[in-house]
Every structure is written in C-alpha cells, then in structure tokens.
Amino acid sequence: MKTVPVAFHPLARLLHWLMAVLILAMLFVGVSMISDLSPRHTWLLSLHKAIGLALLLLVLVRIVLRLTVPHPPLPADLPTVQRLAAGASHLLLYGLMLAMPLIGWGMLSAGGYPLPLHLPALLPHDLQLYAVLRQAHGWLAYVLFATVLVHLGAALVHGLVRRDGVLRSMSPAPLRNRQANDQD
C-alpha cells in the first residue's frame, strides 16, 4: 500500500508562494525600471538584480524538491488534454523561472555591467550578444506574465469551478496531514 499525498510538501508550498510574490514584484520592477530614467532607475536596477538572483537560487531548490518529494496527482477525472496542458504549462513555468535570471545574468555579462555579489561573468563582453539577450529577456518576460495569468486562471477553475482539491493542495495555509491510500 502506497500513500499518495493530498497536498504539496510545506516547503514546496512556501517556495511556490514566495516565488509567486517575487515574480510579480520582478515583473512590475522590470516595467518600472524600463520606463523610469529618474534617479530611482539605479535603485530599481539593483532591486531587479537582487530579486533575480534570489529567484534563481529558489527555483534551483524548487526543482530539486519537485524531483525528489512526492506531490499530489491531478484529479483522475481531468481530461487528457487538460493533463497535458497542465504538464506543459508547468514545464514552461519552470523553464522560464530558470531561464529569466540566467539570461539576465548573461545579458549583464555581455553588456559589461557590474554583477551582484561580484558574480563571475557568464558570457564575454559582446554588445551584439547583449542586445539579443536584452530583447530575449524582455520578450520572455511577456511570456512569463502570460503564463502566470494562465496558471492563475487554471488554479481558480480548479478552486472555484471544479472544486477538486488542486488549489487547496498548494494552499499556503497548513493542511491536515491527510493521506489518500493508493493500492499498488
């Protein structure tokens, strides 16, 4: 007899919500940073770099946790197309959460800009590469924002329409230690 968790591990839930707040902050800081050339720009840029580095570390922990700790399955009655969409959207989210800070780091390296915490340059100084990475970073930010909106919409459908426990399984509130039994 194998127990199947009904909720994500508490650390996974903490990382999920912490990263959700940081990602939203990053998106707003990024937009503000681009449109604000006042003295605040330098502060926004520093904040953007710091949050990006924090997100890179957190997503690495989150990936390890996702691969090593059991998580609740999707509802059995979820249509195959929705299962595939859920898997694809999660892969896209994890990919973007990993790629965005790495592209930012590479972009700063290629542009010859100072790196937070005296990190080593990922790429050589190359202004053409910097321009490509800057554009990619901007476009991927839009993709990340759209993916977050779709993720939020799907979570709300699970929580408010289907009421199938998916939203509750990632709830930031502590859940009772209930386990569903699964026969092997």
TrEMBL record:
Its cofactor is heme b. Pfam families: Ni_hydr_CYTB. The chain crosses the membrane at residues 12-34, 46-65, 91-113, 139-161. Residues 8-171 form the Cytochrome b561 bacterial/Ni-hydrogenase domain. GO terms for biological process: respiratory electron transport chain. SUPFAM superfamilies: Transmembrane di-heme cytochromes. GO terms for molecular function: electron transfer activity; heme binding; metal ion binding. It is a multi-pass membrane protein. InterPro entries: Cyt_b561_bac/Ni-Hgenase, Cytochrome_b561_oxidase, Di-haem_cyt_TM. The keyword Transmembrane applies. GO terms for cellular component: plasma membrane. Keywords: Cell membrane, Electron transport, Heme, Iron, Membrane, Metal-binding, Transmembrane, Transmembrane helix, Transport. It is found in: Cell membrane. Belongs to the cytochrome b561 family. PANTHER family: BLL0291 PROTEIN, CYTOCHROME B561. This is Cytochrome b.
